[in-house]
Amino acid sequence: MTPMDDHDTTLMKTEKSDILVLAGMSLCLFLYHVLAGLLSGYGYFIDELYHIACSRHLAAGYVDHPPFSMEKEWPNFKMFD
What's the number of domains the chain is made of? Predict the structure, then answer.
């Protein structure tokens, strides 16, 4: 075994441990965001409530929506409401 081979093995071990550390940190950050989203009680935002209200009072078009856009969203709101 040459000194160069020993250096390559140490480098490979370091790279594997770095990957494990980064993967662990990424997993922790992902779980933090998922739990923060689930436990915060955030719910709907103003824009989403406005779209739901518009889909409940259907019209051919609104000033800020294209014609029949709310009619296309209406089945989705009925399924998930």
Answer: 2
CB distance 55 to 74 below 8 Å: yes
Which stretches of 1-81 are DSSP H helices?
Answer: 3-39, 46-56, 69-80
Neighbouring residues of 52: CB distance < 8 A, sequence distance ≥ 6: 44, 77, 81
Q: Is the pTM of this model over 0.85?
A: no
Domain of residue 10: give its range. Answer: 1-41
pLDDT in tens, 21-34: 999 999 999 999 98
Do 50 and 34 sit in the same domain of this protein? no
